[in-house]
Write a structure and sequence with these properties.
mainly alpha
Length: 119
């Protein structure tokens, strides 16, 4: 259920907007605390409020179509990975056998061609 409510913006315009806006907001709040006014609670509250507004804007951007359009890819389970791996190993073994057969037939063709040239 937590995944259903998670805002996954991905590597999209909405995601970059959210990332960069939070960097700007929290950097500005830190500078305000250090340079202008040392009221940490005030500027942290302002930064938190602006962060929430930026998150809402990023959510709207996502709904408009500037976010992830496809579901997030999920990693393979161990069973799926092992099945895929064993299939790849079987495919590799089959291709190795095919290459050996090709090499043997090529060698036999060369040998027969040498015999024909020697006659």
């Amino acid at each position: 259920m937590a995944d259903e409510h998670h805002e996954d913006h991905g590597n999209t315009l909405a995601g970059w907007f959210l990332t960069l806006s939070w960097i700007v907001v929290w950097t500005a709040a830190a500078l305000m605390i250090m340079l202008i006014d040392q009221d940490v609670v005030l500027w942290s509250t302002v930064a938190l409020g602006l962060s929430i507004v930026c998150a809402a804007v990023a959510g709207i951007m996502k709904k408009v179509g500037l976010g992830r359009r496809h579901p997030r890819p999920t990693p393979l389970t161990r069973e799926e990975w092992e099945a895929q791996r064993s299939g790849a190993d079987a495919g590799t073994a089959a291709s190795d056998e095919a290459e050996e057969a090709d090499a043997q037939s090529h060698a036999s063709e060369e040998a027969s061609g040498e015999k024909a040239a020697a006659r």
